[in-house]
Amino acid sequence: MRTKPAGYHLNLTTKETDLVFSIMADLSYGYGSNELRRRVGAKLLDLLGAQYFASYVWNSTDNAFSDRVSINMSDDNLGAYEQHFQFCDPITPVLQRRRKATGVSDIMSRSRFERTEFFNDFLANDGLHYGVNYYAYSGGTNIGDLRIWRGKGKEDFSFRELEILDAIGPAFTNAMRSAIGRECLTAGKVDLVAALNQAADGAMLTAREREVCAAVLAGLSDQQIAEKHGISFTTVRSHLKHIYAKLGITGRTQLLSKVIIH
C-alpha cells in the first residue's frame, strides 16, 4: 500500500497546473457524459504520463459495465472485456468499492497480478501493465469511472500521481451527475415532477421553494421566476439559497442531478 512520504507536499509544475485548470474547465462546461469522459481522459493521460484510458458506467440492471469510452485501446479487446473478462476480473470489483484513486498494485501484488488470466489474456494484449482507477459515486450509485494505464517499460503510478487524480475526482463526479441528469431528462427516462416531489419531501422544501425549484428546472432565470410568481428578485435569491442549503448543493448547475440522481 502506498503511503504519504514524510514531509511530502503536493506541488504542481506549470504544465500540470495548466492541465488541471483545463480539465476543470471541461468538467464545468456542460458536455454530455461520453464527450466529457473523452476530453478529460485525453488530458489525464498527458497529466499523468500514461498511454491508455478507458471509462465505463456501471449498469446495475445488467450487473455489468457499459457505455464505454476509450483511448489507445482496441475495440476488439474491449469487446472481449465486456463479453467475458469483466466477469472474471480479479481487480475491478475491489477497486470499484474504493472511494478514492487507487493503484492496482495497492490491492494485489505485482507477481500475483501477472499470473492472472485477466492480465495475460486481456490487458497485455493492448500493452497495459500499470493501472490506477477512480470510481465516481452519487450516493450508493457508481455513475462513471476513470481507468488509466501505463505500458510495459514504464514505472508504476506514484503516491503523488494518485493524489493529483484524487483532487480532480470530486469535480469529475459532480460533472457526471449533471451530465447523466440532463441525459435522463432529455431521453424522457425520468418523471421530473415525481423526482422533484421525492427530493423536495426528503429536504422538507416549503411550497414556495418547490415552485422556485420547479421553475429553475424548467430553465427560467431568477428574474423570470420573480415575474412568474410575483415576488422580488431578492426574494427569489433568498429562496434559492435555502433550497441549495436543504439539498446540500452549491448552485443551480447541481440541482438537476440532485433531483434526478439521489
If you had to describe this structure to a student in words, what would you say it looks like?
- This protein has 262 residues and is an alpha+beta fold.
- It has two domains: 14-180, Beta-Lactamase, CATH 3.30.450; 192-260, Winged helix-like DNA-binding domain superfamily/Winged helix DNA-binding domain (Arc Repressor Mutant, subunit A, Orthogonal Bundle).
- 52% of the residues lie in helices and 15% in strands.
- The protein is built from twelve helices and five strands.
- Strands 2-1-5-4-3 form a five-stranded antiparallel beta sheet.
- A hairpin with a 4-residue loop joins strand 1 (52-59) and strand 2 (64-71).
- Helix 2 (33-48) runs antiparallel to helix 7 and helix 10 (222-229) packs across helix 11 (233-247).
- The longest helix has 28 residues, at 159-186.
- It is elongated and about 70 Å long.
- The model has no long low-confidence stretch (mean pLDDT 89).
Task: Describe, in short, the structure shown.
This protein is α+β, with helices and mostly antiparallel strands.
Superfamily (CATH H level) name of the largest domain: Transcription factor LuxR-like, autoinducer-binding domain
Fold-level CATH name of the largest domain: Beta-Lactamase
Helix and strand sequence:
HHEEHHEHHEEHHHHHH
- Please describe the biggest sheet, giving its number of strands, its sense, and whether it closes into a barrel: 5 strands, antiparallel
In helices, the fraction of residues equals 40-55%
Radius of gyration based on Cα positions: 21 Å
Uncertain regions spanning at least 5 consecutive residues = none
| C-alpha end-to-end distance | 33 Å
